[in-house]
Design goal:
The chain is mostly helical. It has a single domain (3-96), classed as Arc Repressor Mutant, subunit A (Orthogonal Bundle). It has helices at 28-37, 45-61, 67-74, 78-84, 91-96; strands at 3-7, 10-14. It has a two-stranded antiparallel sheet with strand order 1-2. Strand 1 (3-7) and strand 2 (10-14) form a beta hairpin. The longest helix is centred in the middle third of the chain and has 17 residues, at 45-61.
């Protein structure tokens, strides 16, 4: 069953796992609201670096990057990425970035 997320004047539909149904409605305020649902209280510059990287990668390749690629391209080690996104770099980070749930995520 779909969920609703209110962000300012926006009412956004989320799928049953909390991913944004319409990725075109994503903005930084939506990211902040989604981050709270993922136990990320504040988005730091490092979070934004990862979020923008993931969004750019998805825009170019129409798929979320694998963790190994994230590490290589961003310079953040795997442990740092998991500290930034406790639910995981593909599930949690992709959700906050407004992307669909990556294939292979549990």
């Amino acid at each position: 069953m779909a969920q609703l997320l209110e962000v300012g004047d926006l009412v956004l539909e989320l799928d049953e796992e909390g991913f944004l149904e319409d990725q075109s409605r994503w903005n930084e305020e939506v990211a902040k609201a989604l981050a709270i649902t993922e136990a990320v209280e504040e988005l730091t510059e490092e979070h934004w670096t990862m979020i923008h990287y993931i969004r750019d990668y998805y825009e170019e390749y129409e798929v979320a990057p694998v963790v190994r690629k994230m590490v290589k391209d961003t310079g953040f080690d795997r442990d740092k990425i998991y500290v930034l996104f406790p639910a995981g770099p593909r599930k949690g980070a992709c959700k906050i970035a407004g992307l669909p749930k990556p294939t292979g995520c549990i």
